[in-house]
Design a protein that fits this description.
single chain, about 160 residues, mainly beta, Immunoglobulin-like
């Protein structure tokens, strides 16, 4: 596993039943602007918070320590540190995708398996087993095409 969980979720289930869980990571797949970062020609970002537009790096460099005032007219540019951003209509260029399978790690006493993943940002897992009165921490690891590793924690509370 890489790093601490970026989000923790809790779900309850009864002993002997299975829990199907859908992990929605769409918000984390957006490539958001970051301060003091090197950006290459053709990199894409969204403002933080998103404003409905995407921005293409049309002159590589290092971003400023503070987010710029983003233009909201297609084709307009903004200098950000030594980076030049060009405003573009929102699409999929500033969105990462899930790469392959989601890693699932469950402690002894409970089972967890990956069922399916779609590239838009939903991963389905199934959790079974467990002892009544126990809580189990299941870690989910999502790898993206751009190389991000996102870690989530699902706390499964087994109750009668």
């Amino acid at each position: 596993m890489t790093g601490a969980p970026i989000q923790t979720f809790s779900e309850q289930k009864r002993p002997g039943e299975s829990l199907d869980y859908v992990l929605d990571v769409r918000a984390e797949l957006e490539r958001r602007w970051r301060p003091n970062r090197e950006y290459g020609l053709g990199d894409w970002v969204r403002s933080t918070p998103p404003n409905g537009w995407d921005y293409e790096c049309t002159d590589a460099g290092r971003s400023d320590s503070r987010q710029p005032s983003w233009p909201t007219v297609a084709g307009r540019t903004r200098v950000d540190g030594s980076v030049v951003w060009t405003c573009r209509e929102s699409g999929t260029n500033a969105v990462d995708t899930i790469a392959g399978l989601v890693g699932v790690a469950a402690p002894a006493g409970i089972s967890a398996v990956h069922l399916a993943t779609d590239a838009r940002g939903e991963a389905r897992i199934r959790v079974g087993g467990g002892t009544a009165g126990q809580d189990y921490s299941v870690l989910l690891t999502v790898s993206t095409v751009s190389g991000q590793v996102l870690v989530y924690e699902l706390v499964v509370e087994v109750r009668e």
